[in-house]
Specification:
The chain has about 400 residues and is α/β, with parallel strands linked by helices. It contains 11 helices and 8 strands. The chain starts with 13 loop residues before the first strand and ends in an 11-residue tail after the last helix. Keywords: Acetoin catabolism.
């Protein structure tokens, strides 16, 4: 536990869902979403001492029932997932099942429902008051829609957790999605629900799947301003990424007066990830997690559920980012200059034949220019941020130029 900060943010009662059974969510050996990333993340967190922190409770997942899945998905879709999972020679491309992105595999329903159960377990810990914060790093399946699988996502666990919170009496939930890809499924599920604010900060749909999520997508007729999209130019690095986050996210979550934050921390925006064209670092991802933690403390009395998401560099990026995420959620951030534990590095060498990073950080420059310094109309990043602010800020009584 010497790797964890001994000072700084206060330790927070935290539930971390960590269940080896979640690795059954497996599209096959050649698919980008390898379950090995979950195993490597859990192993690194254990070596760092995160699981042994006195404020951390480890929780198991469970297979969500059809009734629980039906709070977000249609009964017909759930039945289709069951059929394809029972016979992987079948496919249902109209529902996104058995496609290149979402290949059929035996037990697909149970494996996908277990990811949903993990986020429900996280929500239940918050509702029961046994934890103030919770993490399901195996979740974040944000492309799954009510009637269709998409983008490696079968059931939308984050949406299920949000509905669970609302059904328990929570008035408002803010969903923050920093995956490189637009959180289209979660947005669409709550498109016309004024109780849920969805903010997605992602690479522009002009250059990346799923091709959606632009500034003028602001929610349904009964929920104008509750869908927020920051459509980042390809190539955006740490400075622009953090500038965009701080120019949009805190102001809107505060104005919305959320009771709980649910966040999705896909780390495929990293410069070494092959499935996006963004250029962020592990250090910036950690900085974003710290910012969400501070926001939860200011607005939601600390209540926060964090999930994983995308991320396909399974050795040097995903375990470090989500290791940092868990430590931040628990209130004991891991310093960036911390050495990656040697037993973990040796395990990676022996089992993956790869050289793992030496440090938990990348010595990246995460300085970002505050929006208050000024707006540059010749900068593509500033233009997209301003488009979002113009579309949404006035609906909350905020000035898109100055707030």
């Amino acid at each position: 536990m010497s790797s964890l900060a001994s000072s700084g943010p206060t330790a927070v009662p935290t539930s971390i869902v960590c269940d080896a059974a979640m690795s059954a969510y497996n599209f096959g050996p050649n698919h980008p979403m390898s379950p090995k990333r979950l195993e490597l993340t859990a192993r690194l967190a254990r070596e760092l001492g995160i699981f042994e922190l006195p404020q951390v409770t480890l929780a198991e997942s469970f297979v969500a029932s059809d009734d629980e899945l039906a709070t977000v998905h249609s009964r017909e879709y759930i039945a289709a997932v069951r059929r394809v999972g029972a016979d992987p020679t079948l496919s249902d491309p109209d529902r996104g099942l058995g496609t290149d992105d979402d290949p059929a595999f035996a037990g697909m329903h149970e494996a996908s429902a277990r990811l949903g159960g993990a986020s429900l377990a996280a929500a239940d810990a918050i509702i029961a008051g046994t934890a103030l914060r919770a993490v399901n790093f195996g979740g974040g399946m944000h492309h799954a829609a009510r009637e269709k699988a998409s983008g490696f996502c079968i059931y939308n666990d984050a949406a299920m957790a949000i509905v669970r919170l609302l059904d328990s009496g929570v008035s408002k939930v803010a969903y923050i999605d920093i995956d490189a890809h637009h959180g289209d499924g979660t947005q669409d599920i709550f498109w016309n629900d004024p109780r849920v604010l969805t903010i997605s900060m992602h690479e522009s749909g002009l250059t990346l799947f799923p091709g959606t999520g632009f500034a003028n997508d602001i929610g349904g007729p009964d929920a104008q301003g509750t869908a927020v999209n920051v459509s980042l130019p390809a190539g955006t690095g740490d400075a622009g990424w953090l500038r965009a986050f701080h120019a949009v996210v805190p102001q809107l979550v505060e104005a919305f007066e959320a009771d709980v934050i649910v966040s999705q921390h896909g780390c495929d925006s990293h410069r070494d990830d092959d499935l996006s064209h963004l250029n962020t670092s592990v250090d910036a991802q950690r900085e974003a997690a710290l910012s969400v933690a501070a926001l939860a403390d200011r607005v939601c009395s600390g209540r926060w559920i964090a999930t994983g998401g995308g991320g396909y560099n399974i050795v040097s990026v995903v375990p470090r980012v989500w290791g940092h995420l868990m430590a931040v959620v628990a209130g004991r951030p891991v310093p960036l200059r911390t050495a990656v534990p040697e037993p973990w590095r040796e395990y990676v060498r022996e089992h993956y034949g790869k050289v793992a990073p030496l440090l938990m950080g990348e010595d990246a420059d995460t300085w970002w220019r505050s929006w208050e310094v000024g707006y540059n109309p010749s900068d593509a990043l500033d233009r997209t941020v301003m488009a979002t602010r113009k579309a949404v800020f006035p609906l909350y009584g905020l000035d898109p130029w100055f707030d």
